[in-house]
Design a protein that fits this description.
A hairpin with a 2-residue loop joins β1 and β2. With 128 residues, the protein is an alpha+beta fold. It has a two-stranded antiparallel sheet with strand order 1-2. The protein has a two-stranded antiparallel ribbon with strand order 3-4. The mean pLDDT is 91. The protein is built from seven helices and four strands, in the order ββααβααβααα. Helix content is 37%, strand content 11%.
Amino acid sequence: TGNWNTGDWNTGDWNTCNRSTGLFNTKESTIYIFNKDSGLTWKEVINSNWYRALYSGDFILTEWIYYTEEEKENSVIRQCIGGYLKKYTFKEACENWWKSLDEIDRKLIQTIPNFDKSIFKEITGIEV
């Protein structure tokens, strides 16, 4: 989204490094996690087990729900379309995502540097 960059994934401008949000940077900086500097670069983050755990479950904001035979029985429209698109709020999707994770991945997520239960709950609605 940035301009005049030679690095990848920049949102800033005139950078030759990767994942910069600033201007005229030549080295990748460390990122903030839970409102504090983690001391980690994005490369270190994406190679961590806890980062993999974040993506081990599905985060679904919309999903196709098929009508049951009973629901289609007295409705030509339902017979034709076959189902409907169910929408979840962001926090409902977070809850469903969390439930889809196994216990190991839930524990790994809680090892994220600077993990803060109150911020996690504020964002996701999930109390750990």
